[in-house]
Amino acid sequence: MCATVGPTEHNTNRPALVGPVISVAKPRELTPLQRVAKRRVRDERVTSSLEPLESVWDSHESAADEEDRGRQDPTASWVPPILGDLIRAVRKTALYRFSPFMSLNRLCFSTGPQWWAGNGEVVPASIELSPDKQYAVVAGGPYGPAAGKVSLATTSAKDAAAEAERLLSAWSPDSR
Fold first, then answer.
1. Is 83 within 8 Å of 129 (Cβ atoms)?
2. Residue 105 φ/ψ, nearest 5 degrees
3. Are 2 and 10 in contact (CB under 8 A)?
4. How many CB atoms lie within 10 A of CB 10?
5. N or C: which end of the chain has fewer CB within 10 A?
6. pLDDT band for position 43 (cuts 50, 70, 90)
7. Which residue has the higher pLDDT, 33 or 140?
8. What is the number of alpha carbons within 13 Å of residue 12 lying toward its C-beta?
9. Is the pLDDT of residue 6 over 60?
10. How far apart (Å, rounded) are the C-alpha atoms in residues 44 and 49?
């Protein structure tokens, strides 16, 4: 049912509007990594047991591969399809002991699966994906004033993983 609204005494030059104007936004589809994160949050609400670390890495690797397939067209995303290779390279290092998470285009690590809730902390190194198909290894935390500087920019996932591992080799939660 449409209603006609005529001119008012305050604005007689305005044309009449017909019916209510309703804007309905189409829901945005979640990326594979967002679906993994949403599923983890939902699952953590349902059960008190935490997902084994290997399963977390498996989920991230699978989601990264799916995202990379969607990033083959450079006009569809500025992020290059290099995340899956990075996850596989990191899994072969001592960084595998940390819980992975994505922060925009950056692979980050934490000492616990729920660092945002006080169960663990974010470690002071991360690996960014850059538009020129490079990995930028960042020394320092990914957030706030602790955000660090790039210690290595490389096209090699293996070299990026090794540099992040080197940066964290002497780090422990108590060494802050």
1. yes
2. -105, 25
3. no
4. 6
5. N
6. very low
7. 140
8. 1
9. no
10. 7
- pLDDT given for residue 51 in this prediction: 62
Closest by CA position to 126, among listed 110, 139, 115, 143: 139
34 band by pLDDT with thresholds 50, 70 and 90: low
Measured CA to CA, the distance from residue 176 to residue 174 in angstroms comes to: 6
Q: What is residue 136's DSSP assignment?
A: E
At residue 99, the 3 state secondary structure works out as strand
Q: Say how many Å lie between the first and final Cα of the chain, rounded.
A: 65
At 45 the pLDDT is 42
Res 89: pLDDT: 94
Burial class (CB in 10 A: 0-12, 13-18, 19+), 89: buried
Please, where are the H alpha helices in the chain? Answer: 32-46, 53-70, 83-91, 157-168
d(CA 26, CA 95): 39
- Sheet of strand 106-110, all strands in order from the earlier edge strand to the far edge: 99-103, 106-110, 125-130, 134-139, 149-154
C-alpha span between 157 and 31 (Å, rounded): 22
Asked which of 4-18, 50-64, 90-104, 129-143 is least confident by mean pLDDT, the reply is: 4-18
